[in-house]
Write a structure and sequence with these properties.
Layout lengths: L10 E6 L3 E6 L4 E6 L3 E3 L13 E5 L9
Parallel strand pairs: 1-5
Antiparallel strand pairs: 1-2, 2-3, 4-5
This protein binds zinc ion.
The site of zinc ion has 6 residues, from loops.
Length: 68
């Protein structure tokens, strides 16, 4: 099984909104916004350590304004 490689991906706690999840990227020093839902994403970074394999989104950050 090669799926184990995913265990090495960084996990970011997101602010969870109704339609989008947002987290603060420590590399870009800006927020990246993705469609709502936990799991693996292609990195929105223009460059940097997450670009090659992406990262994993998890709920648990500060709640986004107006969510739900
Ligand atoms: Zn980034």
């Amino acid at each position: 099984m090669t799926e184990a490689a995913r265990d090495d991906l960084p996990v970011f706690a997101c602010k969870t909104g109704s339609h989008t999840w947002t987290f603060w990227c420590p590399h870009c020093r800006i927020e990246h916004t993705h469609g709502a839902g936990a799991g693996h994403r292609v990195a929105h970074c223009a460059s940097g350590p997450y670009k090659a394999r992406g990262y994993v989104l998890a709920a648990g950050g500060e709640a986004a304004k107006g969510g739900q």
